[in-house]
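Protocol step 4 of 6: structure prediction from sequence.
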Amino acid sequence: MYVHDLSPYLWRISGDFGVRWYGFSYFLGFVLGYLLIRWLVLRQKTGMTATQVGDFATYCIVGALVGGRLGYCLFYSPDLFVKFRGDFPFWGVFALNEGGMSSHGGIIGLALAATLFSMQTGISRLYLFDLVTVAGPIGVFFGRIANFLNGELVGRPCDPSFPLAVKFPSDIYQWTAGQLDKVAQLGDVIDKVPGFTKDKWQLWVESFRMSADARDSVRDGLVHIVRAIQDGNLAVKEALAPLLTPRYPSQLFAAVGEGLLTFLILFILWYKPRRPGFITATFIVLYAAVRIADECFRMPDAFLGYQLWGLTRGQWLSVGMMIIGFVLMFLWSRNTTLRIPGWGRGHSVKLHRK
């Protein structure tokens, strides 16, 4: 069975400083999304200039990043808004290593960015929505791949015979919350990490509940175990493997469903002319449905757990998102008779009025 041993760094310069896959995935998603939007605008001959496409891309980048982070803080961890400390990055909202980004928040941020750009340029708001929603799943695809590389957002436990089962070393970070017996079993593992010994580990575990220094030492040891595996220490990986739970690679399921599949469906649908907003409403419904399905394989955030009727926070957000999508699909289908050219047609139309 595969034990996840991939490094979160595309290029580690020193210590914890370097270029991470997560940041590179955002960069790649934005670049490819921009190229797709530019291609669509030229193909559809809707009157947007190259300068406007570039400006719109900038709005979208800011909207996605700000919305994604604020969305995570709002939907998953509101305490970050009032969490301050004396060292960088000072405010919990800026501490991207604490929770990361929310895709639902990123979608809201993109919608607000497109609305603001429409107000300033006079370009149809619904057309801008359609452009960003057909390109957005490209970024989602790379983002979920980065989640897998980081070993985060892990899947639920699965049968060991499942052919794609993965064991994630990052599981050990959760063991300090009520599973000290499993932490104690890591003695033979930590003994193979340079700078640590089995005897010291047992003392730290025994003092974990009573000593802050012991807790810090244990958590530091857990980090070094995971890092040793990422750095290619086979002895540590082989010793830890029997203690880990096989899980679904939910990040890869999400990359295929929320990213690749969603993009292909929307792109194919826009081959022929569509009413403004059709692509956006379809995206909202489709993404919500796929996200609800994906979450059946993904572990909920440890501090949230399962919620009403056994659903996760992400599933409930997606239920609300799906309802909004159906409402918008109904309203926008009755709002206008204008049709935006598809990428497979050569007609043109000016979209500088809402």
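Step 5 (inspection) to follow. DSSP finds twelve helices and five strands in the chain.
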